[in-house]
Amino acid sequence: MTPLPARLHLGAYAPTAGVDLSGVAVTGDTMFLAPDEGSALLRLRREPGGGSLDWEAPEEVPLGDAVALKGGPDDEVDAEGLDIVDGCLWVAGSHSAKRKRVKHGTPPDEIGQRLAEVDPQKSRRVIARLPLRDGPDGPRTVRAGKKVDGVGEAARLPSGKRGLWGALADDEHLGPFHGIPGKDNGFDVEGIAVREAHAGGGVVLGLRGPVLRGWAVLLELAVHADGPELVLDRLRKTFVDLEGLGVRDLARDGEDLLVLAGPTMVLDGPARIVRLRGGAAAPLPPAITADEVEVVTEVAVGRGCDRPEGLAVLPEGLLVLHDTPAPHRLDGERLVGDVWPAAR
To answer: Where does the DUF3616 domain start and stop, copy by copy (predicted)?
Structure first.
């Protein structure tokens, strides 16, 4: 099975300038991307000419313009999951703590000291719903406090006790992993999928970590908006046997939930797309065994590069984008992704 190339013209935001991608969502001819750093998204448009897999005209979408963020304007959100449903763009930050990176050439007697430094990164504790307003060139986010007919204003879940962090602080499975960096198999949100209202709503989060004895974790949230705040009504866990892999992204495909599965921590692979039948149409069961997980395709990875991180459903197939893209994916101001056939 050979994927088709999808070309993203990122202009000044080209990967050679340091943009690694962690999330993607598409509606019609508009694409939103989550760069791996900073506190802004990117917006692209499909190149005119039906069937084109070229995306161009990148624009920066500062999240701080659309919703209140924790910390300063330069603090990292680490947006990892995006979804578009019922006229809203949903954004999930990783919620993950960060351990100091050991750079190449660090003297051996300094490595231990660097590895002891952990930052809780509270600015990453973001789950937000951003209304989209249709325009002549497709949907756009609106500024904080502005209302869109039928949708309301932007809202986000609190980052403290009344949000996801607080709800899981004493959880028997996930509480012990609070504060452990994501790349150490700690708590790390990497994907979001939101059911449409006619399917009962509900926000599904996919965790890259922790992976518990080989089982990945999905979190299902029931929320409602109260002005600029999302209120958490209920939270449920689902354990999925992904054969030791964690969740790197989620996407809805009709009534099914697609999972881009990959390793936790800093391993290169393996990676695959799997299908959970009915997962986008009804609440998930408490556990999903390996026999109930359908493999759509294995996804190639590189050594130290080409780590699959973003998944979206296009009419042409399943778009996969990569963190730390390999040199062959970089062409000046373009980044090349893969579009895999969507076996149903």
So the answer is: 20-335
Return the ∠ at Cα 33 (arms to 226 and 294), rounded to 5°: 90
Q: How many CA atoms lie within 13 A of 21 on its CB side?
A: 35
Please check whether residue 60 is in contact with residue 40, taking contact to mean a CB–CB distance below 8 angstroms: yes
Cα 211 from Cα 239, distance rounded (Å): 9
CATH of the domain at 245: 2.115.10
Domain that holds residue 74: 4-340
Cα–Cα distance, 151 to 172 (Å, whole number): 36
**DSSP label at residue 49:** S
| Residue with token string 């893209």 | 325
Number of independent structural domains in the chain = 1
Q: Which pLDDT tens digit goes with each residue over 92-102?
A: 999 999 999 99
Residue 179 to residue 119: CA distance in whole angstroms = 9
Per-residue pLDDT tens over the stretch 214-273: 999 999 999 999 999 999 999 999 999 999 999 999 999 999 999 999 999 888 889 999
> What DSSP assignment string belongs to 200-253?
T--EEEEEEE--BTTEEEEEEEEEEEETTEEEEEEEEEEEEE-TT-EEEEEEEE
pTM: 0.96
